[in-house]
Amino acid sequence: MTATATATATATPVHRADPRTTPRWYPDVGGTAAALSLLIVVALWVGNGGVQQLIGGGAEAVSAAGRLTGLLASDLLLLQVLLMARIPLVERAFGQDRLARWHRWAGFTSFWLMVVHIVTITLGYAAAANTNAVAELWDMIWTYPGMLLATAGTLALVMVVATSIRAARRKLRYESWHLLHLYAYLGVGLALPHQLWTGADFVASAASRTYWWTLYGVSAGAVLVYRIGLPAWRNWRHRLVVDRVVPEGPGLTSVYLSGQRLAELPARAGQFFQWRFLAGPGWSRANPYSLSATPHGEQLRITVKDLGDGSSRVAGLRPGTKVLVEGPYGKLTGESYSGGPVVLIACGIGVTPLLSLLGELPYRAGEATLIYRARTEAELAFRGELEWFARHRGVRVVTLLGPRADRPSWLPADLAGRADSEMLREVAPEVAAAHVYVCGPEAWTAPVRAAALAAGVPADRLHTELFAW
Amino acid sequence: MRRITLWMLSTVAALVLMFSYRTSTNSPAPVAAAAVATGTSSGGTSSDGSSSSGTSSGGASSDGAGGTTYTGSTASTRWGDVQVAITVADGKITAVTVPVYPTENHRDQEINARAVPTLVQETLDAQSAKIDTVSGATVTSDGYLESLQSALDAAHLS
Description:
CATH class of the largest domain in chain A: Mainly Alpha
Oligomer: heterodimer
Mean pLDDT of chain A: 87
Transmembrane segments (chain A): 25-46, 66-85, 105-127, 147-168, 180-198, 210-230
Subcellular location (chain A): Membrane
Number of helices of chain B: 3
Structural class of chain A: alpha/beta
Pfam family, one (chain A): Ferric_reduct
Shape of chain B: elongated
Number of helices of chain A: 18
Protein name (chain A): Oxidoreductase
Structural class of chain B: alpha+beta
Domain FAD-binding FR-type (chain A): 235-335
């Protein structure tokens, strides 16, 4: 038995450039740090008599509520910056799609807390000074230290939130939206002076000022290091260029990239990069593409579907074109898989990271099933490679073809009469004992996850990557 | 000019203009002629000095029977200047006035309308600068103590 296992293992082209497994304490550290920062600002407020003032009623209570919401709003703002700062520990602990969801949630929450802060502080101060609220607000903006800046910061954040409401976001070009979104950094920065100079919880206490400066410093530092410094260093070190461009089928193009010291690039199968091709106009927009082949240290491959959003440029790329990347990102990796049954479920272009995983995961013949969902037979890509995996690695490939079902389901229309989880068990009977990798569009991924959980897959063995966020 | 250039120029221009505004750099507020808060100790016969001649260094002026008035130095605080004047007769502080304190906005006015009389009364009771700061008015209290100390020094009271 041992002999067989060894023989199979050596026969398989398993490559593990850097078997970095994410320590299990990473999510604990991230979550604890976020919770602690919220706890500290609440404690600051309590320490300054916030609770007594709130219970005391009257204008003081309103102002106290205003201070609390202000503290929480700015803390959440900084947490949002940290969520998006591409800090490796955070990325590996939670994955970018989850981080992006939390970022959106924290964004809107901090915005509304900020609105409540402005309203309650204005009303509280106005009541204490016996003036009307509008006059008080005007007075605050022009005479309180740092308040003109805070007002400008508020306007910047209002603009960012307004352009991130889904309806507005759809109307904007990505580039415009992204540039406007950068004003959030400005908004966060402009809010700092009024907190330190007029915030009642800061003027009295050196410790709280230190805490606040530290939080701001760490956020700014994280952005500089991980969003700018690290990608710049990686690009300088690896100098990726387009090696060749290969059409894969209708609207599908593979790009092979070469570079220097690629074996030292800490990328794993299933991960993605943000790509910028320096080939004239449109280069400034980064697009997320997964590696569609296992990174072997000599070349990288991505496969791009023409969605009309800049991805059409890819087909026209010339060999030698310089490429800038940010990454690698993504948690859809084999780091927690050490053998046994594995079920990979793809929809459309979502097959690309699963294809690279097929080349890296150390499964044995008969242990792996790839379920590949596409609308038509013509849209099935990589047939040659899938056949290779079927023949040489014993991968079972199941295709599910047909138009979308008229209910939210991962099945095509003609199979949608069956229950989602029942069909999953039928196609892959070993699913409950397997590691399950899912990649596809969001509306399709949700029912797959539900079906897998219902079929008995534990959540920590269910790995998903959303394709758009 | 491309739209992105225009955006960046406008943003920089707005930032420069905003940072040239006084409150954006935490520079001290201009000294406004502040209302005079006065406190007189029960035994004193001091006349109300009404000393709005706010020199920034301490000074002393004799006003006959009531005693001598010593004006403390101006203490600059985040919210504006604070200046204290004391009237001393027979080695006792008989009156305290605060000719300058922050009143620039409603919040200052509201806080200091409460804090300044408290500080004055505490000074008269303690006959020294060993008094408690008023909670919620830490900044004014600190400025008050600094100016009071310089007035006490000028009067050679400890």
